[in-house]
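Hello,

Our lab assistant flagged a job as stuck in the queue for most of the afternoon. It eventually completed. Since we weren't sure the result was trustworthy after the delay, we are filing this so someone can double-check. Below is the sequence as submitted and the structure that was eventually returned. Let us know if re-running is recommended.
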Amino acid sequence: MSLLELIARADERGLAASGIACLDRCLPLPEGERDPEPLRPLWAACEKGADWAARLDAAHTALEDTAGSNIVAARVRALLGAAPRDFTAEPLRAWADACSLLALDVHRLYDFPAGDDAGSAEDRRDGGAVGAGPLVTGELRRQGEILESLAEAAGTEGGGTGLRRVLDLSTEGRRVLRAVVSRRARGGGRPGGVPLR
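-- returned structure --
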């Protein structure tokens, strides 16, 4: 099943968690004494939507300083601000879709080799991953695994297990991307002048 099909079939829990996971992987390393996991409180709201709106507002505020100095953090914060405050499937579907696109775009910026530009993000998410760079390919796979894990756990007694699996997958992806960003920073930046910080 393609990533677009998985997003189309996901329930509100899966959409909220997959969206948060996409944003979480994009966040830069925190500086100074800033919270290393500003989106962590949102995970607890994914199960049943408890305090969803309040936790979104808190995460949006927590990223205010970071967003002022980092363009990717600013884009993450903008999507947090645009997230629906109602924990219902259809508005969350549009939001999760936007989060998916942002994560793929960020991975594309740092990909090396970059792959070809023949396929759009929509093509990639519809099963056309051929020609994508390794970071984008890995992110496509990760997004699919996250949605599949959440779908399998939906409505079960052990639903929390699905969320723990998502958190593990997302943490792994964040480490991969941050390692690439760190190597690029030590090497003097990314070709094409894309800012790393």
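-- support follow-up --
The delay was a queue issue, not a problem with the job. The result is valid. Confidence is low (pLDDT under 50) at residues 191-197. Residues 111 and 135 are 5 Å apart (CA to CA).
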